[in-house]
Structure formats: structure tokens, C-alpha cells
Amino acid sequence: MTVCTTASPETAAMNNNTSSSSPAPAELQAAFQAALQRELAQSSEGPTREALMRAAASACRELLGQRWATTQRADAARGDDPAKAPVRRVHYLSMEFLMGRALGNALAALGLDASLREAFAAEGQNLPDVLERESDAALGNGGLGRLAACFLDSFAELGLPSFGYGLRYQYGMFAQRIQDGRQVEVPDDWLRLGQPWELPRPDVRYPVGFGGRVEVDADGSRRWVPAERLVAQAFDFIVPAHHSERVSTLRQWHATAEAPIDFNAFCRGAHPQAAKHRVSADALNWVLYPDDSTDPGRELRLKQEAFLVSASLQDLIHRHLREFRSLHSLGKLNAIHLNDTHPALAPAELMRLLLDEHGMGWDEAWAITRQAVSYTNHTLMPEALETWPLQMFEALLPRHLEIIFEINHRFLEQVRAQFPGDEALLARVSLIDEGGHHGHGGERRVRMAALAIVASHRVNGVAALHSELMVQTIFADYAKIFPGRFHNVTNGVTPRRWLQQCNPALSSVIDERIGKTWRQDLSQLSKLKPLAGDTALIQQFRSVKRANKERLAELIRRETGIAVNPDSLFDVQIKRIHEYKRQLLNILHVIARYQAIVANPNADWTPRTVVIAGKAASAYQMAKSIIRLAHDVGRIVNSDARVGDKLKLVFMPNYGVSLAEMIIPAADLSEQISTAGTEASGTGNMKFSLNGALTIGTWDGANIEMAEAMGTENMFVFGLKTEDVAKMKALGYDPRLYVEENRALKNVIDAIAGGAFSGGDASRYRQLVDALLGRDTYMLMADFADYAATQSKVDALYKDARAWGERAVLNVAGMGWFSSDRTIAEYVERVWSVKSLG
Ligand SMILES: *Cc1c(COP(=O)(O)O)cnc(C)c1O
């Protein structure tokens, strides 16, 4: 039974249209050999691992290209049966897709691992070494981008007619290097060796304008005359299903100038001048802005967002007209989903295209837009909600601003009628921040979240607590105006990548016990629950974990030179470095443990290896300071002979999908320790538990639903709850009181402040210490004692291998709900289906 059968008759129909026979290995062998010959013709080195990887990728790409064409034909015919409810095609707009590597996934999906293993062996190479030569497609920051990648996998698996839309960043975000314990950012040149996966679509091109002015024709119609014109060209990246021949598409846009060089300027000899447009267009393709701390940076970011939205919507309209001839059915047959507010220009651009380019009237265009658009919010921090200075916005997108003003005018009229006399409410919910208060120097700004909410028929959060808090806090006013618009859809991860692919040994152990269907229907994992006490199963879990830990220990040695003991408890925190995620709390605990070991080296310590990885935004000084502290502490702890392997602290550089796939299967303990009420969902938490790590976590994000699914007694839950945090802050929280009354904590803070880890330099961490003793926004001091006490419980349980193993099985058994297949089935049911339009 496929997930979509239970969730959506619409998508099930699509799945059943396809058979699941694999292409004949002979066909692949031929494609592979042909591609290999092409590679060898270009390579002076012979059949290197790179050449084999690229040849395998090209061969897969050919097969996937055929599946793509079949999938598109089936989807285009989806309106042909009048007896069936029409199926909507989903357009998932996201500035980020954190895809990782593709070859391993493609081989598994196409059922070709075995035959390529042989083909590689014939060239004297083994499969894992060849797979490792592929660069990660790291076109994103973190969780939000990885979620989009998991969704593409589930779109294919569920047979959902869909397009993911993004930008083709040439240098991803950045690659993280560590120099003298500090993060250094370098361009991530992932396309250097070519991109064997992408299918360029030279015929799929759309013009995108910027700047200029709006002209009014004699009949009163308005027309935008942009000053700068770019062309968006499509590159497709195809994502296969594992249990059908369906595929999903990531269509990425690449910008070029309409007129690549100014020929007159060139003839005058003014070469830089001649290339100006080209360089300006190309800048859109460089990087995903990791931070926007400068004005030119911000402007480029807005251009990237507008570029993504305009090209994608023109593509949608073009396809819809080809398939259905008329725009009247556009809203009924297409869903446009906004992954956070980065693509929130979409409703304004769709209105512009319908009104100005296709001559539709406002009311119909607005009805279509509302039907099509839906929005996922990913943050509860008001300062993280995207806004744009009205001036910059008007200069780049004058016609869009007019449309936003009109949407706002009509919206505020409605609110005025609904809540007469409440002027403060109008100011709070307006799409325009009039700037009459703090911050941003009083300038007027466009509020992208407000636009996304007003233009959507559904808005969702990403975990139960987050969705609840979303309507109680940042979007409380909108929830009052639009009751029924707000929903929850809890995140999930794809079991294909995050168990089958990253942990083949554990997958086999699970297969032996409950069969293989969990790959398609993760809820099958609950069948492990009654087996949790089975000694043989616990032993198998243990030996798989041990082998994965040895593999990671070897990688740690190669990357950092640090020798770690695979028998120690692997305690792992890998995610973006952010104050709210509290890597600092983790490091404080490491220091406390270090001091305790030194004070009492002969006590019965449970040896631990603490692993941290993650990138800090390049302008986020506090996050960078935390990375430096991790290195400073690691250097002292790891070289102290009194400590030995009782404690090690390792920072693994350049966190990304492939590194996560190595680390997660080797983790014993998963650190999910954000301040309650700050982590929207988390998906790292799910990957760890799915791979048999136990979680130490706060009552936050999806940790809560995970604890409820597996039994709260199977998670190490600690710390303040959301309501405690709010209460304490309201009463006036003083972190110093916690430090004064906790000797261990005081020693930790004193050591950092006194320069114990910075060669006596007391200034290096002054800001960091001041933040902890001053506002301590994320309540580390208040949570420290409970965190440390809970870590002692972790130590005690780890000593009892059988009890620990039983819990590991129960963790895996409880994770059935957290598949992105279930998440997408819920989106289809509640957000994207015709039914959800009411
Ligand atoms: C899963 C994942 C994330 C998200 O991790 P969180 O712990 O949920 O923040 C970020 N980056 C990568 C590479 C991931 O695989």
C-alpha cells in the first residue's frame, strides 16, 4: 500500500498508471559504457573515480530523462477524464534546495547498484569510493533547504504532479574552512567538474525585468517598462521515485543578460562598460546570500527572489495554456507553494502577469491567486520575518509595488469592516510597515509575510507547537482576521536517503525483522516495538552502530587528526550554528565535564566523544565566536593526558548533507537542545532517532511529537518549557543568580572569562560571557543544571548496553510518522488538493 493511496485518490491514480519494472541492466551497461567512452575521450588520466562517477551519472541521467518525458505526458493528460476530480500540479517555490549527492540515490531508485558495482569493479574501483567523488549540491543554508530536497523525493515517490523551482547558484552558499580555530568562508565551486546531472533546457527561457517605470495606456491599462531585462534559462535536475517510474523535477533558473555585450561600447574600446549587463546578470547566479548585511547584498537578494518567482510563474502559465488553453482554470489546476517568504513576491507577480500580460480583471485574477497560493512559515522570531525597504522595492519592482498597494487597500477595507475603529490593528496587519516605530530608522517597508498570508488560502507551521505559537504570537492578528486559514503540517524526512542510503547495515537488520516495505510506508517501523527486548536484535543494532562509529572515527582522524575511541559514547550536535540552537550550552557542559574529570580522574567516567559541526552565517559574529570556542576548548581537552579518551571534543568542518549521512548513523546521542519555543520543527532530530540514536532534548519543535510517538520515557527531556521561558522573562530573569548558586557553572564561566581556553587572553570571549551574564536571551544559565543532570542520566544508561539498545530500538520503532511521504500526503490533503479549496 502506498502512502498516497490512503492520503489522496488523486495521486494514487497517477502512481497506478506506471509500472515498476527496472530498465534492463543491458541497456544501462550500454549507456554507461558509451558515457565512459565519452569521459575517457576527455580525460588524460584514464578511468579515474571521477570519470566513472560522471559516466554513471550520465547513464542514469539518460534513463531519468526518459522517465521525465513519460511523467510529463501522464501529468499533462491529468484533466482528460471528466469522471475524475482534476488533479492539481504543485509548484514548490524555494530559494534553497539542499540536495547533497545524487548518484547513490539514483542507483538505488533505478535498481542499478549491483550492476554498476560490477562495472566499477571491472575498472578496479569500488562503489563507495566512486560515489564519494561527486560534489554535494549544497544550494541552501540548512533545515529549510533540506526539507525542500526531502519533499522532491516524496513528490516522486507519491507520484504527485509537481515542479520544484529554485535558482542554480554557481557557488552554493560557501564552503567552511577552519584556520587557527576560526571559520573562513570560501566559494563552494561545486560545478567545477561540470554537473553531470543537469539537463539544460535551451528552449525554456523567459524574460525578467527590473527597474524602469509604469506606463498608462489610453484605455487606462498599466504596463511596466523595465529598464533592465534578463533572461531566465532552465536547467532541470531529475529526482527519481524508488517504487515507480515516476520522477519529480527541480527546475533551476540561470540568469543571462538579454543583450550580453554592448557592441557600441565594445567598439569604442570600453570593455568593462560593454560587459556591464553581463556581469550584473551573472551576479544573480553566484551565491545564495548567506547573510544580507550590506545594501548591494540586500538588493541582489531581492532581485534573486523576483527572478525566481517571475520565471517560475511564467513557466507555469505557459504550461497551463499549453495543456488547458484557458487561464480560467489556472487556480483550480495549479498549486503554488511558498517555502517561507523568500518567494512571497509570487502573488504580486501572478497578479501582474494575469492583469497586465493576459488582460484579466482584478477580481478573477485575485480569486485565482488565492486559490493557487499557500505558504509555510518557518520561524517565530519577529526579527527573522522578511521585509524590504519600500524605496528599494519601488526602484526595482515599481509595478509590483502598485499591485501590493491595491491588495493592501482592499485587505484593509475588509479589516476595517470586520473590526471597526481598531486603527492599531490596521497598522499592525498592513502589508506596509509605515516605520513609525523602532528599528530601520523609521523607513517604510514591505512586509513579505503579510503579503504571503493575505494572498494564501492556507498558511502552515511545521510542527504542532510551532503552529500553535504561530497563531498565538507573530500571526495572532491575522489568525483573528482569517480563522481557518492556519494549519499545522509536521515536517518529515525521506527514509530513502536518511535510513536506506546512509545506513545500509541497519536497513538490512530492519529488513530481516519486518520486511522491506518501510521504505515506502515508514509506519511499518512500529512492528519493531514488540521486538525491542529481543537480545539478538539489540546485539545487531549494537554491532551496526559500532561499525558506523569506526567509520566515523576514521573520518575524524583524517579530517582533524584527532584519535577518538569508537567505544566511547558519540554525542553529536550538527546543525547551523545559532544562539537559539545552543551549541554553547553543549560546550559549557563539555567544560564542566572536563573540570570534573581533572578534579577526579579516577571516578567511573563514561567515555564520551562530543562531535559538533555546522556553518555560521558569515556576518554572525556570536556564532563565529562559538565555533572558535569549540576549537579552543577542544585543543585543551583533547591534549590533556589526565583526560585521555574519557572526553574528546571534535569540530568537523564544512557541515553538509554528505557529512550528515556519515555522522548520523554513528551517533549514540542526538543533541536537540534549543530554547523551548525557538526551534520551529527541526528535522535533524528525526534523522538521528531513525538511525537509533537517543535524543537529549528540550520540549521544543518536533522533539515533542517524537517523544509522544516513541514514549516520553525513551527520550532524555530536560529544561524549561515554552510557558516557563515566557513566565521567567516576564518576571525579570537574572542569569547571574543561576551562576552564583551553581559552583560547577560558575567554574565554567570563570574559566572562559579568565582566558583558560584562549591562552590567557581574557578579551577573546568577553562579549560571549557578557551576553550570558547579561540578558542570556536563550536561557542557557537557567537550563544548565538540568542539562548537566540529564547528561549524567545518559552516562548511567549507556553503561547498561542492553537497556540502551532496547531504547534505541524503541526510538526507531517510534519514527514511522516522521516520513516526508506522510508530510506530503498531508499537504496534498489539506493544502494542495481541489478539496482543500473548500
Ligand atoms: C537535516 C539537515 C539540517 C537541519 O538540521 P536541524 O538539526 O533540524 O537544524 C541542516 N543541514 C543539513 C545538511 C541537514 O541534513
Automatic annotation (TrEMBL):
The keyword Glycosyltransferase applies. Its EC number is 2.4.1.1. Residues 1-25 are annotated as: Disordered. Keywords: Carbohydrate metabolism, Glycosyltransferase, Pyridoxal phosphate, Transferase. InterPro entries: Glycg_phsphrylas (IPR011833), Glyco_trans_35 (IPR000811), Pyridoxal_P_attach_site (IPR035090). GO terms for molecular function: 1,4-alpha-oligoglucan phosphorylase activity. The keyword Signal does not apply. Residues 11-25 have a biased composition (Low complexity). PROSITE patterns: PHOSPHORYLASE. Its cofactor is pyridoxal 5'-phosphate. It catalyses: [(1->4)-alpha-D-glucosyl](n) + phosphate = [(1->4)-alpha-D-glucosyl](n-1) + alpha-D-glucose 1-phosphate. Belongs to the glycogen phosphorylase family. Phosphorylase is an important allosteric enzyme in carbohydrate metabolism. Enzymes from different sources differ in their regulatory mechanisms and in their natural substrates. However, all known phosphorylases share catalytic and structural properties. Allosteric enzyme that catalyzes the rate-limiting step in glycogen catabolism, the phosphorolytic cleavage of glycogen to produce glucose-1-phosphate, and plays a central role in maintaining cellular and organismal glucose homeostasis. NCBIfam families: P_ylase (TIGR02093). This is Alpha-1,4 glucan phosphorylase. It comes from Roseateles violae.
